């Protein structure tokens, strides 16, 4: 299809379907190249137009037959639609199609890879299986018969409950029935050979649910953590949200070839194996955490996504944001709240803020979409979850739970909208969220400026006297004006020849002046009272906090209205002690909903500072009048982990912004405050270890990039490396002590406490080796890393050692890479790390390394996991290599996208995310990016997915 024919869909163009389907029976006869799919659906007309034809979606289907109520009928196939005219108001339509799963490299619809038949139907994959109303507002009950191929499929799965199974004509078959209506995107089918982990869960009402986890042969042990996580998720949802599972079985299947992380198909969740399989030898602590989180996320969709689904794809965040919030709370409760929250915040501040600043910026509820696969974004998911969290912050836990319960009860079994959800929260909590809705309709990151002034009691009293005097003068002036008006009216009446006015009229008129005078007297009395107030403690006074907000323009949205921003606030005095003014609400939350707003707090000691946006209470960028001393105060004394991280980040970014122009001259001042701050963290044993692991390192390059509107990439890379080297060299003794203190002493186990200790240890290992290399002690670093790699019993530390060896280019690098390939080369999931470690090296030469890895015998362009490991890491996680000034990073990306465009358009578009955000770099880089994006745009048969992103980037560049 020519790119010029691609048209965007608009949210406001939504129309209800002319027909709906109430029931559908599907029959599959599986084969690699000729799978037969027979569909019989019961349709009901919804439109009053009796002549409207039935229009069904279909793509890449070979249509064999169409029957209307069992009889031949008229029909036509126009483009990607099957059109059946002259249909009654209620009828059955049967279609028979043939598809080729083995050749379906897009991995959308029904495909076969690694010997397994698998489906992915969200958002619009079902139309690649059969003709149907492939839209989320059509909910039907499904009955599915699967007939397996002649060999290789001992397991045949679909949604719902198993009704029958057996062998017929030498082929295995199963029949499944799902009693709950669902949209087509939640249909699932899996057929293959698996090891099965079986267990049960008893719900709080006493129902026993059979659990089945299906993994590759030989991976049984690696699936046990996922099974444990399933049971934890089911128990947690009952406890926290009072939501119970509703079917007799719950199945999870892990597959290697999958475009997404996982899919919440009703009762048959399909997972990327990377989100299921873990053990100490092959998985890191991060992998364990991720598996637990994703298992929870997909299970929680059973209610927030499956039982209540969405009306149209513009409402995607309806199910994803609430479910992300729920999975974050799950991880916080069963794992580590500090780790979970800081991880979520980092995603927003690094990835989502970058998206807001780029050409694909969009609201949490987009207004227009060309390719829906492009909108499974961090804005929809993660910013959306922050919007839900803000609702929780404003309402409180009790009212929030009441609102969610009302929403699920009100819309159970139906397709809802974001507006439905917000209205339900309003109704249940009796809270007005009218202005809050702007978080769903406006794109961009709000920028908040915070400043404050402290007034002594003398200044407060003087201000009150001045205000009272002004009020008294105004009252006296008003009284005089009123008296003059009365006199004028009386004179006018006499001029018109009137005799004396009636007595009551005169009395009424004469009463006006004394009334105004009395008001002035009262004001004067009040002023006198202020003047007579005794001055309390010297050094205490009023703190006036002024907040202003603005949001930069984004594509198709030039002007923004003020948001409702919950500002979780506390106060620290000059010695670091916490202080709560009486005016601060018990929740600590200030509601900031104007362009500029003042908040006043009395009886505040001089030197006290407000600590705003505790726990990152809103997804905003903060600018303030904090000093270095304030940042150090917050770092050392604030009890909020995010505030401590932000304080150190601000210390470092302030230094960088102030001195980045000096980096080429070598005239950089010693970063004394930063050194002292990190030394303090290294030596303070009371700091949470997950927090400490972050604080003892320099923030990532991508995090620091988001503190700039225009990015001096070369200067930023150089000054960040300088800071990292200074820390590593100057504090090498402190890092060494902490490294020894946090070494593993027993066999590996995954617990939040052990994971936190290993996180600190790995950070110390990285900084120690940087210090040794910078000081010329390369062999000491080499011996240390070589020993760590060989001696450890877990992948968390082994991967750290490999990463350090590769990043520092240690002599042992090639030896360790060879050892890793020998040990894990035949384990696809674990070997993905071999590619990602090398693609992440912040060096311009990484472009050449990645080119060589593309030709590695074990690199497979058709495997999304392998592509993400190499090109995803390179394209999104390595700005140094991707954005080379000579354009070689862009050329590499062009070459890969050219190959992927027709093979798997969704993955091709996703790896472009880093490249399209080029506009904040220097002109040389911008011109190179534009050059290669134009080459991509000119590719023949350019996919809709790739075109949308490339065209958006080029259009944004033209406007600038």
Mean pLDDT: 95
| Proportion of residues in helical segments | 40-55%
User: How is the main sheet built?
Assistant: 8 strands, mixed
What's the CATH class of the domain at 18-193, please?
A: Mainly Beta
If helices are DSSP runs of H or I spanning 4 or more residues, what is the number of helices?
A: 30
Strand content: 15-25%
CATH topology of the domain at 18-193: Immunoglobulin-like
Radius of gyration: 33 Å
Describe this structure in words.
- Its EC number is 3.4.11.2.
- One of its GO terms (molecular function) is zinc ion binding.
- There is one protein chain.
- This protein has 960 residues and is α+β, with helices and mostly antiparallel strands.
- Among the domains are: 18-193, Immunoglobulin-like (Sandwich), CATH 2.60.40.1730; 195-302, Zincin-like; 309-445, Neutral Protease, domain 2, CATH 1.10.390; 540-633, Immunoglobulin-like.
- Helices cover 45% and strands 20% of the residues.
- The protein is built from 30 helices and 32 strands.
- An eight-stranded mixed β-sheet has the order 6-5-9-3-2-12-15-14, with no helix packed on it. It has a five-stranded mixed β-sheet with strand order 17-18-19-21-20, covered by helices on one side. A four-stranded antiparallel β-sheet has the order 10-11-16-13, with no helix packed on it.
- The longest helix has 39 residues, at 457-495.
- Mean pLDDT is 95; it is low at 498-536.
């Amino acid at each position: 299809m020519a790119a010029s024919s691609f048209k965007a869909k608009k949210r406001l163009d939504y129309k209800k379907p002319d027909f709906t389907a109430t029931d559908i029976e599907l029959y599959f006869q599986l084969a690699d190249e000729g799978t037969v799919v027979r569909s019989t659906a019961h349709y009901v007309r919804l439109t009053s137009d009796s002549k409207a034809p039935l229009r069904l979606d279909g793509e890449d289907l070979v249509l064999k037959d169409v029957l209307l109520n069992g009889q031949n009928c008229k029909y036509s196939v126009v483009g990607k639609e099957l059109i059946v005219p002259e249909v009654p108001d209620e009828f059955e339509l049967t279609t028979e199609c043939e598809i080729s799963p083995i050749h379906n490299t897009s991995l959308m619809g029904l495909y076969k890879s690694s010997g397994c038949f698998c489906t992915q139907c969200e958002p619009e994959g079902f139309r690649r299986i059969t003709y149907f109303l492939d839209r989320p507002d059509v909910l039907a009950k499904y009955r599915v018969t699967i007939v397996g191929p002649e060999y290789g499929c001992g397991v045949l799965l679909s949604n719902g409950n198993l009704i029958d199974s057996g062998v017929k004509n030498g082929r295995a078959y199963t029949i499944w029935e799902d009693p709950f209506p669902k949209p087509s995107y939640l249909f699932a089918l899996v057929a293959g050979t698996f090891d099965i982990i079986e267990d049960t869960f008893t719900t709080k009402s006493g129902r026993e649910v059979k659990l089945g986890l299906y993994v590759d042969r030989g991976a049984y042990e690696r699936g046990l953590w996922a099974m444990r996580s399933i049971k934890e998720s089911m128990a947690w949802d009952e406890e926290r949200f009072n939501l119970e599972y509703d079917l007799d079985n719950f199945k999870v299947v892990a597959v290697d070839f999958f475009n997404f992380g996982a899919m919440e198909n009703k009762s048959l969740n399909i997972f990327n194996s990377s989100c299921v399989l873990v053990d100490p030898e092959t998985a890191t602590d991060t992998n364990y955490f991720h598996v637990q989180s994703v298992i929870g996320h997909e299970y929680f969709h059973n209610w927030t996504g499956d039982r209540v689904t969405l009306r149209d794809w513009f409402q995607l965040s309806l199910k994803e944001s609430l479910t992300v919030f729920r999975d974050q709370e799950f991880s916080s409760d069963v794992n580590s709240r500090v780790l979970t929250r800081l991880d979520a915040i980092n995603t927003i501040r690094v990835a989502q803020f970058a998206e807001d600043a780029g050409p694909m910026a969009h609201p949490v509820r987009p207004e227009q979409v060309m390719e829906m696969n492009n909108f499974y974004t961090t804005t929809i998911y993660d910013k959306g979850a922050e919007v839900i969290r803000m609702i929780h912050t404003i309402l409180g836990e009790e009212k929030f739970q009441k609102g969610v319960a009302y929403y699920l009860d009100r819309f159970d079994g139906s397709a809802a909208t974001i507006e439905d959800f917000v209205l339900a929260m309003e109704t249940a909590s009796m809270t007005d969220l009218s202005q809050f809705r702007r978080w769903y309709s406006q794109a961009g990151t709000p920028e908040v400026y915070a400043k404050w002034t402290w007034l002594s009691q003398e200044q407060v009293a003087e201000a009150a006297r001045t205000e009272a005097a002004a009020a008294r003068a105004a009252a006296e002036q008003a009284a005089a004006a009123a008296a003059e008006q009365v006199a004028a009216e009386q004179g006018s009446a006499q001029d018109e020849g009137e005799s004396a006015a009636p007595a009551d009229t005169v009395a009424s008129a004469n009463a006006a002046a004394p009334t105004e005078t009395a008001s002035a007297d009262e004001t004067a009395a009040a002023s006198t009272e202020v003047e007579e107030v005794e001055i309390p403690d010297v050094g205490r006074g009023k703190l006036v906090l002024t907040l202003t907000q603005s949001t930069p323009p984004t594509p198709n949205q030039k002007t923004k209205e003020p948001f409702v921003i919950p500002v979780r606030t506390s106060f620290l005095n000059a010695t670091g002690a916490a202080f709560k003014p009486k005016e601060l609400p018990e929740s600590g939350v200030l509601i900031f909903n104007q362009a500029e707003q003042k908040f006043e707090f009395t009886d505040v000691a001089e030197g006290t500072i407000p600590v705003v946006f505790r726990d990152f209470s809103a997804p905003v960028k903060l600018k303030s009048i904090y000093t270095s001393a304030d940042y150090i105060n917050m770092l050392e004394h604030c009890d909020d982990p995010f505030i401590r991280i932000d304080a150190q980040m601000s210390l470092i970014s302030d230094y960088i912004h102030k001195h980045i122009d000096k980096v080429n001259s070598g005239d950089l001042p010693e970063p004394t405050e930063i050194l002292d701050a990190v030394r303090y963290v290294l030596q303070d044993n009371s700091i949470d270890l997950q927090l400490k692991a972050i604080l003892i390192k320099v923030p990532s390059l991508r995090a620091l990039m988001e503190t700039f509107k225009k990015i001096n990439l070369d200067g930023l890379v150089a000054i960040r490396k300088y800071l990292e080297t200074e820390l590593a060299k100057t504090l090498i003794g402190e890092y060494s002590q902490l490294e020894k203190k946090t070494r593993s002493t027993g066999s590996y186990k995954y617990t939040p406490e052990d994971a936190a200790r290993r996180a600190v240890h790995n950070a110390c290992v990285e900084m120690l080796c940087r210090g040794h290399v910078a000081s010329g002690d390369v062999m000491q670093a080499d011996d240390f890393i070589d020993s760590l790699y060989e001696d450890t019993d877990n992948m968390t530390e082994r991967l750290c050692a490999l990463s350090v060896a590769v990043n520092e280019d240690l002599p042992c690098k090639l030896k360790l890479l060879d050892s890793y390939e020998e040990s894990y080369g035949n384990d696809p999931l674990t070997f993905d790390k071999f590619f990602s470690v090398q693609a992440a090296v912040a060096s311009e030469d990484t472009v050449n390394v990645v080119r060589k890895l593309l030709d590695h015998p074990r690199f497979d362009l058709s495997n999304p996991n392998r592509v993400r490991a190499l090109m995803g890491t390179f394209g999104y996680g390595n700005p140094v290599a991707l954005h080379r000034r000579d354009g070689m990073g862009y050329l590499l990306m062009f070459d890969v996208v050219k190959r992927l465009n027709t093979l798997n358009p969704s993955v091709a578009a996703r790896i472009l995310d880093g490249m399209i955000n080029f506009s904040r770099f220097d002109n040389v880089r911008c011109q190179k990016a534009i050059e290669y994006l134009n080459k991509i745009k000119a590719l023949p048969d350019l996919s809709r997915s790739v075109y949308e992103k490339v065209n958006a980037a080029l259009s944004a560049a033209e406007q600038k």
